[in-house]
Amino acid sequence: MKFPITLDRQKEIYLNGFAGIPPVVPVSFRELEEAARKKLSSQAYAYIAGGAGNEGTLRSNTQSFEKYKIVPRMLRDVSLRDTSIELFGQKLSSPLLLCPIGVLELAHRQADVGVAKAAASVNVPYIFSSQASRSMEEVSSVMGNTPRWFQLYWSKSNELVKSFVQRAEKCNCSAIVVTLDTTMLGWRTRDLDMAYLPFLEGRGIAQYTSDPVFQELMNEAELRAKRKITFHSVVGLIQMTKNYIGGNFLSKIASGRPIKAVQKFINIYSNPALTWNELKYLREITKLPVLLKGILHADDARKAIDFGMDGIIVSNHGGRQVDGSISTIDALPSVADAIQDKIPVLMDSGIRGGADIFKALALGAKAVCIGRPYVYGLAVGAEQGVKEVLQNMRTDFELTMGLAGCASISEITKSNLSL
């Protein structure tokens, strides 16, 4: 099936402009980020935009794309362009998915629900975050038949892992994405300078507080460090209580559950002791395809196959975990060569436009995932902002593909690049 949609999107923007109706969000990524910065609180912008350490990885993720140059080919019939792909038996209209991004309430009150509605409106798969601001059940309910996956942070409780996976299955998630690179929180300097961690306010833990196993785990005693009570900590407690599910404010305060939820989450959400052998447990509890997110080394890619994984996502967590890490576009070729098409290879971290998508596919990615662009769209224009970011990204890619002389995804290869 072929989808000649590109000129329609361009025409829409230009004709709206002629009528004095500007786009809801800027088309340029730089302008989009600046518009979002003006909308967001300083704490929210730091959390979303920042990276680890001196942010060398954050910069490298985008700058490294520049060394790979597209070599357009001429006089090829690209009047009809097929951007569709197939992943795990599902036909997707484009090689674009939405990364799991936590604490989306920092960007807009619609949070994950607004993103899900936008993704469904343009049929782009959405990977639900473990650190979501809304439960997977609520988000899934607005997506219709649009594909959705679930990102799993492997906690210290296997029972909680199992519960998350079972809930994802009931929400019709069609794959599980295990994030490997966040067994400890990276040294995120912008957040540290502001001494701000949103989870301490009970933000971004909706998957946990809505989970029956987690509610049981909250009954376990936690060691409490004595802290000086300040005006700021009282404000934080109020916010924490507001963010906790169910009941009225006073009953939630009286129960002590909001504080217990945050304490339990902080103590359980990550597991630095995780090894390859634990993946066997996941295979025992689900038949869904399992992808490993955070692979950057060819040996780890080969090991993923050895352990029966169904796919990998080349990712460095958007530069938020290891400062000085290899960029994802630089890691992609060796990982793809190691995989040899045995399982799908996806990529995230650094995708900012259609040319980036094209280059990633030429270097071996089956599909790509975007993160910050759609979060900035959410901040600027809520659901409609996300929708326009996705429309613009897909249109930019399709135009790039056609102008490079490729009528379908299968025609995009290394030969289209000057390496």
Question: What are the main properties of this structure?
Answer:
8-stranded parallel sheet; 44% helix; TIM Barrel; 2 domains; 419 residues; alpha/beta; 18 helices; 10% strand
Structure in words:
The chain has 2 domains: 6-190 and 271-413, Aldolase class I (TIM Barrel, Alpha-Beta Barrel); 194-268, no CATH class. Helices cover 44% and strands 10% of the residues. It has helices spanning 6-18, 29-39, 42-49, 56-63, 111-121, 136-140, 158-170, 189-193, 206-209, 212-217, 231-243, 249-255, 257-268, 279-285, 298-306, 328-339, 354-362, 372-403, and strands at residues 69-70, 85-87, 90-92, 96-98, 126-128, 148-152, 176-179, 290-295, 311-314, 345-347, 367-370, 417-418. The protein has an 8-stranded parallel beta sheet. Strand 10 (345-347), helix 17 and strand 11 form a beta-alpha-beta unit. The longest helix has 32 residues, at 372-403. 49% of the residues are buried.
Helical run tally: 18
In CATH, the architecture of the largest domain is Alpha-Beta Barrel
Radius of gyration of CA atoms, rounded to a whole number: 21 Å
The percentage of residues in β strands lies in 5-15%
Provide the number of structural domains.
Answer: 2
The secondary-structure class comes to alpha/beta
Strand order of the largest sheet: 4-11-10-9-8-7-6-5
Mean pLDDT equals 93
User: What string, H for helix and E for strand, traces the elements in order?
Assistant: HHHHEEEEHEHEHEHHHHHHHEHEHEHEHE
The dominant shape is globular
- Assign a percent range to the helix content: 40-55%
